[in-house]
């Protein structure tokens, strides 16, 4: 039987509508959530993501600022900018778009952001909070995946989740979030032997390896929930890590690329920024 397709795009629109109402209510109470997005360089995909973030913020009535810095910006200059944003009380969320040019150490930049404004959820303090099951800002793509599963009424507790990919952005945090939801989690990666032995045993398979079409119908069993986090461009066409046509013949649920997980990333960023604004005003 063909799988039920989970369209993150539709869900994202629904959640953004809910957030628009929340932003309006907050502004009546004198709270105006503000996000600042910083980009260094002119990578076309990154520019399109940050513009998407700014547009999405404005569409829900949230204040946002986009700082576009030249490719040759030094690390010192970027750290100075972040220090100023950390001190600016009108700013609730700070996001530095990744990847950064090679003269800048990504980890140094991530660690310079005030954890209470780290709406990406990448700061080691926020990662530590996630690991210890505390409330914090969860990284946006992993958080979006969990929200998608829940809103599609897919139960997580006791399920075997197999993750392909161990990046700090997606693989590692999504596993931790799902562990916190009482799933049994297996991580696979480029050095995993006999990958199919694992993918065949998954109730929920999350593919975040960055390799176009690496998983197909023959790698999964009937009824698997397949979440495709891949964003690959093949011959100018956007495609995921999963061969949709064959996998959707066996999966119970599947996310497409595009219009699947991607739009949830920006939605959860808006969620985290609203949360940051509420937390600051609660202090
Ligand atoms: N500081 C950060 N940098 C990066 C993050 C992040 O969460 N924080 N994630 C990715 C890029 N990203 C957001 O920044 C992102 C990727 C994809 C999408 C998306 O909506 N994809 C669409 C397709 C869009 C297209 O045509 O290219 C989809 O899948 O439907 C949104 C955000 C790396 N950097």
TrEMBL record:
One of its GO terms (molecular function) is methenyltetrahydrofolate cyclohydrolase activity. Residues 139-278 form the Tetrahydrofolate dehydrogenase/cyclohydrolase NAD(P)-binding domain. Catalyzes the oxidation of 5,10-methylenetetrahydrofolate to 5,10-methenyltetrahydrofolate and then the hydrolysis of 5,10-methenyltetrahydrofolate to 10-formyltetrahydrofolate. PROSITE patterns: THF_DHG_CYH_1, THF_DHG_CYH_2. It catalyses: (6R)-5,10-methenyltetrahydrofolate + H2O = (6R)-10-formyltetrahydrofolate + H(+); (6R)-5,10-methylene-5,6,7,8-tetrahydrofolate + NADP(+) = (6R)-5,10-methenyltetrahydrofolate + NADPH. This is Bifunctional protein FolD. Pathway: One-carbon metabolism; tetrahydrofolate interconversion. Belongs to the tetrahydrofolate dehydrogenase/cyclohydrolase family. NCBIfam families: PRK10792.1, PRK14186.1. Keywords: Amino-acid biosynthesis, Histidine biosynthesis, Hydrolase, Methionine biosynthesis, Multifunctional enzyme, NADP, One-carbon metabolism, Oxidoreductase, Purine biosynthesis. Its EC number is 1.5.1.5, 3.5.4.9. It comes from Halobacillus seohaensis. InterPro entries: Aminoacid_DH-like_N_sf, NAD(P)-bd_dom_sf, THF_DH/CycHdrlase, THF_DH/CycHdrlase_cat_dom, THF_DH/CycHdrlase_CS, THF_DH/CycHdrlase_NAD-bd_dom. Gene3D superfamilies: Leucine Dehydrogenase, chain A, domain 1, NAD(P)-binding Rossmann-like Domain. NADP(+) binds at residues 165-167, 231. Residues 6-120 form the Tetrahydrofolate dehydrogenase/cyclohydrolase catalytic domain. The keyword Ribosomal protein does not apply. Coiled coil: none annotated. Homodimer.
């Amino acid at each position: 039987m063909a799988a039920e397709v989970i369209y993150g795009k539709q869900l994202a629109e629904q959640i953004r509508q809910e957030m628009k109402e929340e932003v309006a209510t907050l502004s009546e109470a004198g709270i105006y959530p503000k996000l600042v997005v910083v980009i260094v360089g002119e990578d076309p995909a990154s520019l399109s993501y940050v513009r998407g973030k700014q547009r999405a913020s404005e569409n829900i009535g949230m204040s946002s600022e986009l700082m576009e810095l030249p490719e040759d910006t030094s690390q010192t200059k970027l750290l100075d900018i972040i220090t100023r944003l950390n001190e600016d009380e009108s700013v609730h969320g700070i996001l530095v778009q990744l990847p950064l040019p090679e003269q800048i150490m990504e980890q140094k930049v991530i660690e310079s952001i005030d954890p209470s404004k780290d709406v990406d959820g990448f700061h080691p303090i926020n990662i530590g909070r996630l690991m210890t099951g505390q409330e914090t800002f969860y990284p946006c793509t992993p958080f979006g995946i969990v929200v998608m599963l829940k809103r599609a009424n897919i139960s997580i507790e006791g399920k075997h989740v197999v993750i392909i990919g161990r990046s700090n952005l997606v693989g590692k945090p999504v596993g931790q979030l799902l562990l916190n939801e009482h799933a049994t989690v297996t991580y696979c990666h480029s050095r995993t032997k006999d990958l199919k032995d694992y993918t065949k045993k998954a109730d929920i398979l999350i593919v975040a390896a960055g390799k176009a079409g690496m998983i197909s119908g023959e790698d999964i069993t009937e009824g698997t929930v397949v979440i495709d986090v891949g964003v690959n461009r093949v011959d100018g066409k956007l495609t995921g890590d999963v061969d949709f046509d064959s996998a959707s013949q066996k999966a119970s649920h599947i996310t497409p690329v595009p219009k699947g997980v991607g739009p949830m990333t920006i939605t959860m960023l808006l969620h985290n920024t609203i949360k940051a604004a509420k937390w600051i005003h609660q202090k």
